[in-house]
Amino acid sequence: MPILNREEFFSYPFEKQGRFLGCDVGEKTIGLALSDKTRMIASPLHVINRTKWKKDSESLLKTIDEHQVAGIVVGFPLNMDGSEGPRCQSIRQFVTNLLALRDLPICFWDERLSTVAVTRTLLDADMSRAKRSKVVDKMAASYILQGLLDAMRAHSQNT
Fold first, then answer.
1. Higher pLDDT, 138 or 123
2. Is residue 32 domain-resident?
3. What global pTM score does this model have?
């Protein structure tokens, strides 16, 4: 299955009930979030500490299987001007490698300022730096996934 653009993902014939997985892929970690079965609410799930692709992909596939994931949204780190930088190529390769292992609908989602927004929320909650570092990646994945879920709901109401 190719990587789907936003419109293709929104109109994909997903089963009525099925979870989406949100991924915030970094160099050292992969933050994961999961939607509820009705795809209304995103919740932080856990963080995979990256090592080698084989181990990372095994952890990711285990999560996909355990939660019966129907589709995946991956944060896409565009530059502030909307252009693609070197991290975008890394994310594209990550998704290409994942698609070689599991044929699932995958969509990129603009993640600009997601980590900043999450960090600001955690600072407002007076969370210590040590605690923030443990949750920021999965919270960013949840922020990305919730953005997609909200946009999908708005799209379905307008069509």
1. 138
2. yes
3. 0.88
